[in-house]
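Re: Re: token formats

Sure, here are both.
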Amino acid sequence: GYILTPNVDHVCMFQHSEPLRNAYHKGFLVLADGVPIIWASKLLGKPVRQKISGSDLVYWLAEYAAEKGYSIFFFGAEDGIAQRASEVLSERYPGLRVAGVYSPPMGFYKDPELAEESVRIVRESGADICYVALGAPLQDLWNYENHHETGVPVSIGIGASLDFIAGKVKRAPLWMQKSGLEWTWRTATDPRRLAKRYMQDILQFFPLLAKEFFRSRR
């Protein structure tokens, strides 16, 4: 199976993407990756206990895997990033078994041969856990469509987590993560790519939340 870690952006995409909704319906574990999701859950009277982001889970799972002897496959990210991230985690958690590392070429999922090759590489690694760093929603759709074929017991979409681990991108300070301001940090560090997306998310998310709030009251 596979794990999903929704944030505000996922919630907005969920409204307009049937494939993503299908992916969410088939995921065996869904964890809130974003303080606004926690706030919304409390407002709606269905509180989620805590935020568990993919960027935190990669460390916890790596530590657990090292203790239990499980192996991890690093799939996605830019060329060289996944390899570096695997080395960093191996140094941090002695005994961690790296089943393999593969950064597929851009647009690989559009090419049947490359798409099939990516699944084969992961399957033949015999990994127990697969970190899929393709960005949302691609990573979640890839897990949904291929988790049976890869044969990996647990796959998880981790977004930019390998970039953080490898040191390519600096993660927001802990106080910003806990206060729900991580998105402002990421916007400041990559405004060209993220500013428009986050603005669109804000304009969609709060009307959705208001609609759900009043519906729950009725």
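Second one below.
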Amino acid sequence: MIIPVILAGGSGTRLWPMSRQLFPKQLLRLTGTHTMLQQTLLRAAGVENAADPVLICNKEHRYPVEQQVCELGNGQKHAMIMEPEGRNTAPAVAIAALKALSADKNARILVLPADHLIYDNQEFCRAVAAADRYAELGYLITFGVTPDSPETGYGYIRRGKPLKADGNKDSGPGTFAIEQFVEKPDLQTAEKYLASGRYFWNSGMFLFRAADVWEQLKRFSPQIASSCLHAWQDSVYEHGALFLDKKAFADCPSDSIDYAVMEKTEKGAMVSFDSGWSDLGSWAAMWEAGGKDADGNVMNGEVIARGVKNSLVFSDRRLVAVLGMQDCVVIDTYDALLVADRCKSQDVKAVAEALKAESRREALRHETAYHEWGAEDEIAGCKSHVIRRLSLEPSKQAEISVPEATMLHMTVVSGSGRIVRNGSDGDVQRGDFVKITPESGIIIENTGNEVLVIIEVKI
């Protein structure tokens, strides 16, 4: 049994302003009708002998992740594990191993980041099937992508000798011992790697028996193993998700599975595959992966371009006109605009980090925020007032606090419900208006069968 483990906790800051802390790139529709997370789930479902997937994500992402899984509507069951905070991939793999071992001592886990693009899913499934032969023999498999350019944004794997599935037969092309992991190179070094034919992009995808990787974690990263074991043992299952113990998980060192295990173990192996892979780690990568017009441009949304070449232009909702530019990136969203040299797009992360340091909302979330009860959309705002749209799902309730020196004016625009304030409650329906004073604090409950939509003005 292969258990797909979907790592959905990243922040994707290099794709700001579309990707943000509370709604990162794995939740975006960047390359088609499905989000990156949904594409990953569909890809995992095509793997032979695949069990129901396990999703590991930050608790801040729980509700949009659940919503997107439900949107697929393919009847696939899933388990959700909530991390109190991000601690990199080694702790996530440790938790996944413990989860798998609780179900099947012989289970293999297929670790997949939720934000990767793979064009050829059949080739991916063939690579997984090849890797599974070696995982059953005790190897820890990583997937190396055959490079087609001297990419400086990826780590590399130098292949060693071909492996044999048994004492007599070669494994066939594409399965190798790992000779060395190397960091992201400069351009000259990357060109040498490409010319040698011995180097592969490190995809960050893995397949191994849960018992094997757990033993290697205990051997090479005992503090990670110990902290994750305590976080797992003291976890709490609530409302369809497993919440890891906050204190135990906070004590866990932050490290990647590459550093923690793969670079140290003698059991490491690599299966190569060539399937049009990208981690979409920058706007330049988005341009590389996109469908280009005759001028080499990738356009999305309502865009007019004249005299523009080799550029990426995305418009979220309004008309964007770009004239006489080349090798540029223009990303226009509801509340932020990015204009950059395409070759400098890796530096976007620094912009997102600067905004986060200033506690700017634009680093944290979009105009839409998702909650257990539904969603809130910021329609307009300034220093004197903020206008929001609250959308409560049927049978859900939201508790709204009113800060000092502010007032809320609420108008019901659709649906029906009940508002509780100052110990009393009253039914509301379309057209009703409610004024909330600072000392009140309220609970809004949707008592109908359709979404309850309220326009809130905070002054």
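Residues 168-173 have pLDDT under 50 and may be disordered. The longest strand covers residues 199-209.
- S.
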